[in-house]
Structures
1.
Amino acid sequence: MSKLTIGLFGFGSVGSGIYHVLKKRSIPDINIKTIVVKTPQKPRSVDSSNFSYKAEDILEDADINVVLELIDDADAAYSIVKKALNRKKHVISANKKMLATHYQELIYLAQSQRVSLLYEAAVCGSIPVLRTLEESFSHDTLTSLRAISNGTSNYVLTRLFQNPQPFEDIITDAQKHGFAESDPTLDIDGWDSKYKLILTNYHAFGVLNSPDEILNTGIRHIKPEDIEFAKDQNFTIKLIGHSKIVDDQLEAYVAPQFIPNSEAITSIHFENNAVELNADFAHQQLLQGKGAGSIPTASAVLSDVVSLLKSYTYAYTKAQYNGPHFNGDKRIKVYISSYIEEDLIPFEFDTEVLHGTQRKLHYRIGKLSLQSLKAQLELSSKEVFISVFPELNLN
Amino acid sequence: MSKLTIGLFGFGSVGSGIYHVLKKRSIPDINIKTIVVKTPQKPRSVDSSNFSYKAEDILEDADINVVLELIDDADAAYSIVKKALNRKKHVISANKKMLATHYQELIYLAQSQRVSLLYEAAVCGSIPVLRTLEESFSHDTLTSLRAISNGTSNYVLTRLFQNPQPFEDIITDAQKHGFAESDPTLDIDGWDSKYKLILTNYHAFGVLNSPDEILNTGIRHIKPEDIEFAKDQNFTIKLIGHSKIVDDQLEAYVAPQFIPNSEAITSIHFENNAVELNADFAHQQLLQGKGAGSIPTASAVLSDVVSLLKSYTYAYTKAQYNGPHFNGDKRIKVYISSYIEEDLIPFEFDTEVLHGTQRKLHYRIGKLSLQSLKAQLELSSKEVFISVFPELNLN
């Protein structure tokens, strides 16, 4: 493509970020023609004369060949992206929830319309995760992937390991400092990490998961004694989007993990993100950087925009080959804990490995299938913290 | 390009690695037709009927459209690459010394012949450094880059920080375990890191340096007391390929650096490599992985080979813009040490900041220009350890 005429939806953190980035960089052949926002009266860093308020001003403008979809509302985003692709416009999106929920449909739609659908900014902000998987490891067989992809959770866990304290205190403080949303559910319960894992798995393994088949459990019920227990054994706890090939099948879930402090991924602190890859040929790679923030996330949008000048599109090489299949029923080893011993009793392990107490906290460690854990979690209303436990110890 | 017919020069570590990798992966449209090696009688993992011994068998074969140059000898490599480009064959090389020495000429030749010259494997083995700079950060302004790009030096430094001991003991041990060459000069004196820095600087900053304008000093004269001195102040010493924009000019050198332990790059241990980038938009990124080894390095060659199917070529975007100019005369702050106090006296600082002793070791810390340091080093035959010292302390 020789000229990009851009329609931008959304002027929040990422939308205004890419606006300012493109303004500062001023790349010939790249031009934002129209910006559509929802709420006219919202105060913004740019004069209101720059904005439109009707989606049609972009979608029905035949001049515009690229749509940047950078709004929060996943349903509205879906509708915009679908219409844009149907009108043969290239789309760049940062909306992980929308993409993960309608992944197959949107990929097929883009392919059948012969336009690009790019979304580097949806996974770990500024870190070029998808591009690296596509361009550098497309013909290397990945054996595992672990992502710290949620900055809020990693910030909270880092603070807790510096100074163990009740979760409620730390999340309030994180909200005050802008590191957590007023409703932090998507972040701390692993939903955000799950959407990102779904996007990544297709590029890394050629496996296309739906959100409801992947377990996500988060850090809401972590207690100071869990941290102490981890520290006593030289572990760190990280909220991990985990994918691994076991017996030629893919196991994938989002959960806190106890990780030995000797592993490099435990050195990722505060709001930083990281992706650890293990590949047949390249062995271990660790990419780290800023996973959020207006300008860092906009930098990933920028790299997608620029790549359209070279007609870049994802090849999804891994999906072309006979790769692994998802198995939602792998057995894993988990640690569960609660101040109330009775809350742990209904949990059924295949094999109980250990149980004990850490001060007033009760814990049990055992093995069970992911499906059984998922079913039990959906039934449980208790304040039980659940974390994957490494195979290497205590059994 | 629809079909790659490959001529492979060299069957050492990387050459045999890519041979086995391509055999295992078996990609349609990619085929090694001819392998040329130098020494017929050398024992190899593959039957001798697979080998030719004359460069012409590749260079004069019109069928062959891609040359993989994976030999050690930089002069022979230069001659092969030049001939291959002149015959309009695409070239993939892992020879950092050859590339850095003839960089401008070879880039221009490839461009004028309209073929690709790719060399991801020449910088940090399996880590996709150049591709990431080209594809993800081509329109972001880099402000600094630090590379741990020599596995041997990093292995030695890691071992020394675990257990301070004389350098001679540790290098002998590293040679025994295959982590150092019998002549380790290129690695431990910073030459290898310098060639890699030169290749990286052109992609990162658009600055094309010649080897003789960049200072390199290494770890040959490091002593247990230097390690103790660093540890006492919560520093690690790493051999760093350093580039930084200061006042719109590029300063670049290879030298050991004292780095506060709080910085992520200090967590890169043993033979691992890493590149830390700081960019206007993306902020800090750290890429880490295996910098050497037959199969990991071959994985980088593989990614270059595969990219030729999509007619990939480096855009050198940074070199198209009016970027920073190299300034070889920036002032830096250095630490110099020796058991013999007199050996330190001839060193002339602009400003002396501190001097003292660590047990029987004498040290001085001061500021001077890179050019002055380079000139003094070239004259000195003394066993003086030199390391860049951070600005943040002790002044």
2.
Amino acid sequence: MAFSGPAFEILAESTGSRARAGLFHTAHGPIRTPAFMPVGTNAAVRGLTPSELESLGADCVLANTYHLWLRPGEELIQRAGGLHAFMRWNGPMLTDSGGFQILSLRHFCHVEEAGATFRSHLDETERLLTPEAAMDVQAALGSDIAMALDICPPYDCGLVEVERSTQRTLRWAERSLAARHAPGQAVFGIAQGGTGLALRAEAAAALARLPFDGFAIGGLSVGERRTETWPALDASIDNLPADRPRYLMGVGAPEDLFEGIRRGVDLFDCVLPTRLGRTGVAFTSHGPLDLRRPAARLTDEPIEECCDCPTCQRFSVGYLHHLFRGGEELGMRLASLHNVRFLVRLVCNAREAILGAEFDSELLPSSLRREDEEEGAGRPRQVSAVAAT
Amino acid sequence: MAFSGPAFEILAESTGSRARAGLFHTAHGPIRTPAFMPVGTNAAVRGLTPSELESLGADCVLANTYHLWLRPGEELIQRAGGLHAFMRWNGPMLTDSGGFQILSLRHFCHVEEAGATFRSHLDETERLLTPEAAMDVQAALGSDIAMALDICPPYDCGLVEVERSTQRTLRWAERSLAARHAPGQAVFGIAQGGTGLALRAEAAAALARLPFDGFAIGGLSVGERRTETWPALDASIDNLPADRPRYLMGVGAPEDLFEGIRRGVDLFDCVLPTRLGRTGVAFTSHGPLDLRRPAARLTDEPIEECCDCPTCQRFSVGYLHHLFRGGEELGMRLASLHNVRFLVRLVCNAREAILGAEFDSELLPSSLRREDEEEGAGRPRQVSAVAAT
């Protein structure tokens, strides 16, 4: 079937929650939603090959506009046939815009209305990333989903800065859409607004008026408590169009994926599975397992008996412990494989449950719940009055 | 077919050289010789899985007695079902004895007639490795081929020390055989002797009188020029039994593998393919390629067009350059995969040529020849008078 442009197809909706299952169609095939997207900042998911990611069931991989813009430069990747050809990943790809780097590299970055001026962490040169430049770079990279450049304010900044960043992000969203020029490339806007529910709702409602192919919720999971995260997420989602995919940026803890799906999120990304994997921590249904801990030494069982990942199919915790103790790269790789598969399977199981009308919060083992989560608080509805108009 | 003990089967011999092709039968299957054996010091080949090693065509993998003795300890591996079960490699395995560590860790090691006392590089405790202990550890590890504990003297030590180490190695060889107690485990002796041809010949002839299942040539490729290596190798081989496998330890440069095969070597091991791979250097038939060099940045071609490795089948040199510039683990892994496959294929092609009576020194591209090699010098015969008796 010829690709006729990005489109979101909702296949089933949960009755007991806002969860839904669907397909987001891209030029490189559909993304089954809800989906967890592994992060390949530098056009490579740390230590893993595209074939492995495919066999783990990942539909879509992320890369980062800011990092690739600096090195190797988008011209080189375009010359190689685009990001897909360069890194040999043939499925859907999403490129983050560089907005998160305005936060993470804020001590090397100055933001004005025109854009963000970065002092490169590689060679100290100054480079201006504008909303238009971010769209240009993403068009050259040829990702399937481009993100509008946003400003992600620090969690602990004052209300004035949150408000200013949120309003500027909205103006940048309009400029991003005006600059759009890669046919077939979906463009997503990013809703900011800090943790103030009124601003969250207002920003989402304003963004919802723009013809984006999907909407991301940014500025969450940046240090705030989960009791602040979920109401802010709800305030955004309440005001975003239900017929477009919702992408909760930077969230990837198992308990958070489940909670996000329940609250209507379709897409997630996070470096957590590979970052934790490299430090010797493996996800399990009973919570994180530290493979370096002395007790792991004598364990002949895999990380999880029931896990279908290539690591659990073959290697014991005792062997993984030995690899981490010896600084062997293989350990980092095997733990990363397990962790990515764990998250992909978690969202995949949720998707199957939604499709089978069996989605239920009991899918989440109680051991995965965060301690700061208010059990039974339900989804706050108080901000849904600010509807998209 | 039931395994009836280690046995070497010679299938073909070259007429123009000493090269031969065969099978060394072990409890975990045959090793096709000549063979290149990748090194997994800590029961893991740096960054690669057993499945990958198998798909690269490696028949036998090495592990290190000294390192595994210190960590995790042979009892733990025995408890896990032996080295094969622990690291999930089901093919033949060879364990080095710890003799090379007497050289590489010589500043932490004191050698007496009883054995070598190491100050552990992990926890500073003192531990005595005797020939008997090395056999015990290897029996517990359950490798298919155990090596007798030897003393590998530094390249630049005086003649007195070479002579003393060589004589002690012979006495330790006898003690190793007397201590042998793992049924079905092959035991190889190691011929030392420095670069003096008379001592080399004498040591090999003395070792040849002992009923080892195979014979290694040690103490070469430790710093000496290749013009010294090859005569010393010949002096050893001239005095070792032709019906037993010959193993040239620690040699793995492409040009050296070829030269070794021509001179009658059956087995090789080396950390070179993974060590070079991790630093961004790839073997090619035109010599080593530095993937970090600026010219690699714009190369759309694979490392070698004709290479059947998973890296060359999929990735460009430009992408690999990008990975190394960004410190991405995937680059190290992809270069290591290529390098191991390059060496395995090199010996595999040599084997096919020997079996097809087509083995010829012209198989070696002139670009692989070392500059210090004396072209056309042929194999010196002057020491062959010291025959095994």
